[in-house]
C-alpha cells in the first residue's frame, strides 16, 4: 500500500459550512498532488484548539496554511499571530453582509502580522490553492512545471472559447 505523505499545506476552516467554498482549494491541491490536510477549528468557538494547531503546524512539517472563514473572520489572523508560516485567508460569504465582513476582517490586519487576503468565495478559494502552489514551487521543480502547464492550459482554453464564439457567429 502507498504510504500517505505528511501534509505540507493545511486547509483550515472556521466551520463545516465553509466546505462548499473551501472544496475549491482542496480540489486544486489534489490536482497538483500537494499533500494536504483539512482542519476544522474556530477562532471564537474553539480558541484553544486554534492556538494549539497554529503553534504546532510548522514543527509537523506544514509549509503553508490556507484559512477559510466567514462573518467576523478572525481565524486567519489569529493563526498568523501564532505561527511564522505563510497564511493565506479566504473570506467566505456567510452572513447578510455578503462576505464584506470577512473580507475586511481578513485583509485589514495590523502591521506586523501578515495574512495574504484572497477575494471572497470560490475564486478566492481557488487562488489560495494556486498561491500556496506558487510558494511551494519556489523550491520544487516538478510543482513549477505543473504550474506552467496549468497556466498554459488556461491560455489554450481562452483560445478554444474564442474559436467556438467565431464558429457560432458564422
Ligand atoms: C465563521 O462563521 C465560519 O468560518 C463560518 O463561515 C461562519 C458561520 O459558521 P456556522 O454558524 O455556519 O457554523 O466562524
Enter the CATH topology name.
Rossmann fold
- H/E series, N to C? EHEHEHEHEHH
Rounded radius of gyration (Å): 17 Å
Could you tell me the number of beta strands? 5
Average pLDDT value? Answer: 96
Uncertain segments of ≥5 residues (pLDDT<50)? Answer: none
Number of domains: 1
Give a quick account of the main beta sheet: strands, pairing sense, barrel closure.
5 strands, parallel
State the end-to-end distance.
Answer: 55 Å
Helix content, binned percent: 40-55%
How much beta, percentage-wise? Answer: 5-15%
What is the highest CATH level, the class? Alpha Beta
With strands numbered from the N-terminus, the spatial order across the biggest sheet is 2-1-3-4-5
Number of helical elements: 6
Q: Spell out which ligands are present.
A: 5-O-phosphono-beta-D-ribofuranose
**Gross geometry:** globular
Structural class comes to alpha/beta
How would you portray this structure in words?
The chain has helices at residues 19-31, 47-57, 75-80, 100-107, 122-137, 141-169; strands at 9-13, 36-40, 64-70, 87-92, 116-117. The protein is of the alpha/beta class and 170 residues long. The chain has one domain (9-140): Rossmann fold (3-Layer(aba) Sandwich), CATH 3.40.50. Strand 4 (87-92), helix 4 (100-107) and strand 5 (116-117) form a beta-alpha-beta unit. The longest helix is centred in the last third of the chain and has 29 residues, at 141-169. The relative contact order is 0.15. The model has no long low-confidence stretch (mean pLDDT 96). Bound molecules: 5-O-phosphono-beta-D-ribofuranose (RP5).
Amino acid at each position: 500500500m502507498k504510504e500517505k505523505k505528511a501534509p505540507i499545506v493545511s486547509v483550515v476552516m472556521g466551520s463545516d459550512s465553509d466546505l462548499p467554498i473551501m472544496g475549491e482549494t482542496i480540489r486544486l491541491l489534489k490536482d497538483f498532488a500537494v499533500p494536504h490536510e483539512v482542519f476544522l477549528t474556530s477562532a471564537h468557538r474553539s480558541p484553544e484548539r486554534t492556538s494549539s494547531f497554529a503553534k504546532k503546524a510548522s514543527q509537523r512539517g506544514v509549509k503553508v496554511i490556507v484559512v477559510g472563514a466567514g462573518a467576523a473572520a478572525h481565524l486567519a489572523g489569529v493563526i498568523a499571530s501564532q505561527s511564522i508560516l505563510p497564511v493565506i485567508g479566504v473570506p467566505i460569504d456567510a452572513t447578510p453582509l455578503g462576505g464584506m465582513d470577512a473580507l475586511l476582517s481578513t485583509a485589514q490586519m495590523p502591521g506586523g502580522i501578515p495574512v495574504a487576503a484572497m477575494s471572497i468565495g470560490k475564486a478566492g478559494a481557488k487562488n489560495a490553492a494556486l498561491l500556496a502552489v506558487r510558494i511551494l514551487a519556489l523550491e520544487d521543480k516538478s510543482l513549477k512545471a505543473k504550474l506552467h502547464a496549468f497556466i498554459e492550459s488556461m491560455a489554450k482554453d481562452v483560445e478554444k472559447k474564442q474559436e467556438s464564439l467565431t464558429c457560432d457567429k458564422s
